[in-house]
Design a protein that fits this description.
The chain is α+β, with helices and mostly antiparallel strands and 206 residues long. The chain has three domains: 61 residues, Arc Repressor Mutant, subunit A, CATH 1.10.10; 75 residues, Arc Repressor Mutant, subunit A (Orthogonal Bundle), CATH 1.10.10.10; 48 residues. Helix content is 46%, strand content 19%. The strands form three sheets. Strands 1-3-2 form a three-stranded antiparallel β-sheet. A three-stranded antiparallel β-sheet has the order 4-6-5. Strand 5 and strand 6 form a beta hairpin. The longest helix has 23 residues. The chain is elongated, with a radius of gyration of 26 Å. It starts with a helix and ends with a helix. GO terms for molecular function: DNA-binding transcription factor activity.
Length: 206
């Protein structure tokens, strides 16, 4: 029994096969099955998801078919010089986003490298990352940030810097003071609250 034979067996199961059943089906012991599964994972020939079946924790093993990943061709897998820009291009092809635990398999890199590239894109505000639970596993939903969305985010970030036409008194302030006792800051916060109340009243009228 080798990894190619194991892969052939996995391919016969359209909905996948549980790892704690796989080694029994092919007639090998569990440790050897685990080793062969890891080799197939490294070559991106299968996917492995944590699941609970019949009260026991195990893995659901599925073969990776051509075109399985929404139009990303198999030739992109294992691309040696993939960087943040390439990763972003892949993310942009998914209008509804892509799960991080799928993303690294799609582009053919390991999970730690994918996490590092994702963090770089997050720092540049080029993507968003949201905690989700998919098929019983905790992961992140990654989405690209369109240019318009980025401009809106920048504008919204300025809302609480200006009140009544004036910047926060803390902007550029070099005085050593306690914020809770600063009259300038207190007056500015009062103006900010007054603006919010006024805006809410306008929204109700409209």
């Amino acid at each position: 029994m080798n990894k190619d034979t194991l892969l052939d067996v996995i391919k016969t199961r359209k909905d996948g096969i549980l790892q704690n059943e796989l080694w029994k089906v092919v007639g090998i012991d569990s440790p050897k099955c685990s080793r062969l599964v890891k080799r197939l994972l490294k070559k991106n020939l299968i996917t492995r998801e944590k699941v609970i079946a019949k009260g026991s924790r195990t893995f659901l093993i599925q073969s990776v078919e051509e075109g399985m990943f929404g139009g990303i061709e198999e030739k992109t897998l294992g691309y040696p010089s993939i960087g943040a820009d390439t990763l972003l291009d892949v993310i942009k092809t998914r209008k509804d986003g892509i799960l991080q635990n799928e993303l690294w398999k799609v582009v053919g890199i390991d999970s730690p490298k994918c996490s590092r590239l994702v963090k770089r894109l997050l720092k540049k505000n080029l993507i968003t990352r949201e905690k989700v639970i998919a098929k019983g596993s905790r992961t992140f939903l990654i989405r690209s940030v369109e240019e318009g969305m980025l401009e809106t985010a920048k504008k919204e970030s300025l809302i609480y810097l200006i009140a009544n036409g004036h910047f926060s008194p803390c902007t550029g302030c070099r005085l050593e003071c306690e914020p809770e006792y600063c009259k300038h800051l207190t007056d500015w916060i009062d103006d900010l609250l007054a603006e919010e109340i006024k805006n809410k009243k306008l929204e109700v009228c409209l």
